[in-house]
Amino acid sequence: LLVQCTPSEIRPMPPTCDYLLRFQPLFRRYLWGGRRLGTMLGKPIGAWDDYAESWEIVDRADDQSVVLAGPLAGRTLGELVREHGAELLGQHASHQQFPLLMKLLDCNRTLSVQVHPNDEQASRLNPPDLGKTEAWVVLHADPGSKIYAGLTPGATPASIASAIDENRIEDHLHSFNANVGDCIFIPAGTVHALGAGLVIAEIQQASDTTFRLFDWNRVDAAGNPRPLHVEQSLAVIDYATGPISPQRPRALEAGRERLVECDKFVLDRCTLSAPRRIGGDGRFHLLAVVDGAIEVSGDPVDTPLATGATALLPAAAGAIELRPQGGALVLDIFLPD
After folding, report:
1. Which among 22, 36, 212, 283 is annotated as catalytic?
2. Gyration radius of the chain's alpha carbons
3. Which residues of the chain are under the pLDDT cut of 50?
């Protein structure tokens, strides 16, 4: 028996989350920003000179990455998690929110000295949030650019509070000169600041909770200082965390090294001189090109992913081939088992 359907009865198949996803960046302008997100990383910034952050992949309430191309163009990352959670997240489909946030930062001026709470501390905030463990990869460093990471030995809440009052907090901060390629792991509770002259790729938990401990006595155009959160900062600092230095990469297979492995994310760096396959392991992968350019199989955008470009490979996309144009460095970020 042949049954004919009228056009109104034919329903198109819903799009599936099974291809490489590129997103529109969300920009943040702060007093410490500059223009290198555009001039160095090719982001479509406007005319201002204080572009500080490009939120590349984010799912936080009204802050939503929007798909650029393909059948899911125009959909937000939050919608994909809700409607295509198993396809997108694979073995981590129990997450109700995309668990990571990918940023690029232009540190034209030194950032404030700050600290982030852990998951338990952040859960008691109003409204509750995730904690914020993060990692940085240095994409550019002016000569003498500093990173502040961790406290000098013996710091206490009282000594930190006194140092802030006496304008000598730097005496308690461990610092070092940054180099391109450095990876710095910042667990929640670590006091830290990025110095002037740096361009950074940052991966973190999907949190935006920051407590500002000190802001170098800066004021805005109206002569007002930015708010500080000294009491909250002193309460969440992990005083057992001493000086932090760049990670020592651990070689895995040829052309892949592990930079960070923690309970929040895994961060690998791949050196590509020939095609390489990534994915097909039942989980999503965040990809960030930090040098060079690559073409990706199944990419609906007809331009290569060049330095500063990011993309999300859903679990359902399976293994894809990355084809470098000459050579390329690519960060591969995923959740641990």
Report:
1. 212
2. 21
3. 1, 10
Q: Helix (H, G, I), strand (E, B), or coil: what is residue 296?
A: strand
| Residue 15: per-residue pLDDT | 86
Q: What does DSSP say about strands 198-205 and 134-141: parallel, antiparallel, or unpaired?
A: antiparallel
Q: What is the pLDDT of residue 328?
A: 98
CA atoms of 269 and 333, how far apart (whole Å) = 9
As a whole number of angstroms, the distance between CA 268 and CA 336 comes to 12
> For position 8, what pLDDT does the model report?
52
Q: Which residues contact residue 90 at a Cβ distance below 8 angstroms, ignoring those fewer than 6 apart? A: 282, 283, 284, 314, 315, 316
Q: b/e string for 45-57 if b means 16 or more Cβ within 10 A?
A: beeeebbbbbbbb
Q: What is the pLDDT of residue 334?
A: 98
The residue whose two tokens read 């042949």 is 2
The 10 Å Cβ neighbour count of residue 208 is: 16
Question: Residue 71 — left, alpha, or beta (φ > 0 → left; ψ -120 to 50 → alpha)?
Answer: alpha
Residue in 218, 178, 186 with CA at minimum distance from that of residue 103: 186
Query: Which residue has tokens 């904690």?
Result: 131
Can you give the pLDDT at residue 6?
58
* Amino acid 254: pLDDT: 94
Is residue 212 annotated as part of the catalytic site, yes or no? yes
pLDDT at res. 282: 98
CB 104 within 8 A of CB 53: yes
